[in-house]
Amino acid sequence: MITAAQRFNRTMLLASAPFVGMIVWIAFVSFTIQAPGIDYAAGGGASTLPNMAEAAAPTLDGLEDAAVIAKEISASMKKVSELYTKTNASMSAIMTTAKAQVSRPALIYDKRITHRLGTVSDSVTSTKLTAQLFRIKAQNFSGYALKVKLKAAGAMDMTLGKDTFGGSETTLAAVKRTGAIAGVNAGGFADSKGKRYPLSTTVVDGQYVSGFEASFNDLFFVGLNDRMELIGGKFSSKDQLDKLKPQFGASFVPVLRKNGVNLTIPDKWRTSPLRAPRTIVANYKDDQLLFLVIDGRNENGSSGATLEEIQLLLTRYGAIDAYNLDGGGSSTLVFKGNVVNSPSDGRMRPLATNFLFFK
């Protein structure tokens, strides 16, 4: 198939060919003026001058013809230049239109999933990311949704508490310390000897914090790879996870949704607790991320959302994969320097890991 660029180049070649030929012809044709011999010794000096003018006339006529040809070539080349300029402008317009058509399906998809989330209550847009905040109001609970489109490396990261293995800090403290625009609590943790350690397999800056631990029971690993894509699931070996090139991530339980299908929730997590504050991370087919932070008064099972209700929300929102992060008093969402949800402890809980977003 001949492309538009190839068609344009052929047109320019055909248009230029006659003028190239003329230039070559002029280069090989020489115009010389030769004065006829004047025999002053024979005494005919004065009578020979008219003969010189007559002899030079054909040569001068040739020069005049060449000048006319040169003017015609110059005028024609000017027209070719104008044609090139117009054609180049047309090609640019065609490319702009083509790019718009290519991006249109993505814009339509984004508009559809955004509409499902409701009205944007706040947002941040930069060269690195677009983050949109939505309110969630259901029959039995309320909370927030954060939809994030990552555009460049460094737009999202995960940090250890105070950047120390065994350290802890609130999500707000982590946001302020790093200069992030937003933050969400990440994986689970275990306390030991006054320190708070991240639960199971944890990756920061592409490195395993305390080594790899094969998935057991309902534990999973979830994080981002080197292409800013959400990766997650159960992994039986380090090599299996390494193939996905994790850059950062944490562990918790259970997996809620895979490939657009809700998974069966293990009995243990179905009722223990029944209702609670929740934090969820999910993705869309265009690799945008969705975080849900659901509020509840406490962790005794009387307030908040069930995991089945979260799955219903994820189905309504059109999410592809989804993972349940640490909830209860850990559930915290910070946006533009403010804690937008209501942590159930009545104050923010110091955590071992937090997801952070940078503009």
TrEMBL record:
Alphabetic keyword roster: Glycosidase, Hydrolase, Membrane, Transmembrane, Transmembrane helix
Q: Where are the transmembrane segments?
A: 12-33
* InterPro entries hit by this protein: NAGPA (IPR018711)
- Organism superkingdom: Bacteria
The protein's GO terms of the molecular function aspect are: hydrolase activity, acting on glycosyl bonds
A Pfam match: NAGPA
Locate the Phosphodiester glycosidase domain: which residues?
Answer: 179-358
The reply on keyword Transmembrane is: yes
Q: Does the keyword Hydrolase apply?
A: yes
Q: What is this protein's name? A: Phosphodiester glycosidase family protein
